[in-house]
Design brief:
13 strands; 3-stranded antiparallel beta sheet; mainly beta; 10-stranded mixed beta sheet
Amino acid sequence: MAAEIDYGLGQTNIDQATGIRYGVIPFNDLHEWAYEDFQPEYGTPSCPDCGREVSDSCYGKDYFCDHCFDVNDYRDHESEEEDREDHKEYCFRADECYPESPLYFYVDDGRYTATQGQDDCDVFITKSPYFTYAEFCSPCAPGAGYLRNSNPDGIKTYCFGPEWFEGEKAPYPVYSVETEELVNG
């Protein structure tokens, strides 16, 4: 094992079930088509007025804020139509309930689970059928392995398989999580 410091103390950026560390790699190291596999995540829809979570479906719009609309304020209406009209002002389109930019980008395809923050250039690989040995990424990502620093004496770290790189050649040795055999390297 490399003489490095695990700033995560064995508790962070590690798959507790397998003991394999999360992998960190700059997005630009991946093949250019990788941009197509990462999906945007905008979070939970929220009320543009109060910021609380909104409910689905609302008289022709997408979302409704239960918090801002107090049904008791409208009990004196003579008709349901009047209630509906007052209710509409608390209804919002989806584009009003989500941020303009994604919170982060992710892959979750059944084989890989990975995320990239909106302003980050690094990708965190949290599940993969492959691993490699790398040096700690600490203190920036406590407990994770930095895939640019491959090291045969390093920590077992999730990684992308060779198909994620130009010419299907990973910049590190790739091992199967299932068999622990070298599959590319």
